[in-house]
Design a protein that fits this description.
alpha+beta; Structural Genomics Hypothetical 15.5 Kd Protein In mrcA-pckA Intergenic Region, Chain A; Alpha-Beta Plaits; four-stranded antiparallel sheet
Length: 233
């Protein structure tokens, strides 16, 4: 297996991003620096990325985690900020499928299967994510149509969101939005462009997996039916 594919399946990065990481001298094999993405990894090779040994797991594990506010989605942080890994007590190396920003709560999936993670995150696969928002007022019909078409969100990017449901609750609006691409801070950027005030943002579904009543800060392994539903995407 090529080294860039090995890194991708181990969950380090996409294959294209792995090319750059390898060329940036971040990988050693059997104690020797390797900068060729096409290097063929052998079964007995010891592969280290950023001085940590990596391997491809043969048994897939996926967990659902209810991320609290104030935690960043990363494996480790040089600034020593609170990370989601701090709340997940397991000896197994798991990495997040996509990201939730520091101030966003809700469903975050983590796995040891890099190939599955890349499949779920790649824009071409159009895996839906549903978010629950609290904003200052509901969207008018023309605004719903505009968001479903496209909204310029800055930095030469366009965002799209489908309004699944919305209702007024005690002077505020509770809205469910469905997105498919997962651009960086896409929901927040769309809401800003639509001139709404955002009070809270929570992801409640990723593909077929629902957050349900999982308590904030807690996690669980996906059941076999959920694993099958992800595998069939």
């Amino acid at each position: 297996m090529r080294l860039n594919k090995f890194l991708s399946q181990a969950g380090i990065a996409s294959r294209r991003e792995s090319d750059q990481l390898i060329k940036n001298a971040m990988v050693t094999i059997n104690g020797v620096l390797e900068t060729n993405p096409a290097y063929q990894v052998k079964p007995k090779d010891e592969v280290l990325f950023d001085d940590q040994r990596i391997r491809i797991e043969t048994k897939t594990r996926i967990i659902a985690f209810n991320k609290p506010e104030g935690y960043i989605t990363t494996m480790k942080d040089p600034l020593r900020r609170k990370t989601v890994i701090d709340l997940i007590q397991t000896d197994e190396r798991l990495f997040p499928i996509g990201r939730l920003d520091k101030d966003t709560t809700g469903l975050l999936l983590l796995t040891n299967d890099g190939q599955l993670a890349n499949k779920l995150m790649h824009p071409r696969n159009q895996i839906p994510r549903i978010y629950k928002l609290q904003i200052d007022k509901v969207f008018q019909s023309w605004e719903v149509k505009r968001m479903a078409s496209k909204v310029y969100i800055g930095q030469k990017e366009w965002g799209k969101a489908e309004v699944v449901d919305q209702k007024k609750v005690k002077g505020r609006a509770t809205v469910h939005l469905r997105l498919f691409h997962g651009k960086k801070r896409e929901v927040r950027r769309i809401i800003y462009r639509m001139k709404r005030k955002l009070f809270s943002l929570k992801r409640i579904q990723y593909g077929p997996i629902e957050l349900g009543d999982l308590p904030e800060g807690k996690w669980r392994d996906l059941n076999k039916f959920e694993l099958v539903s992800l595998d069939s995407l």
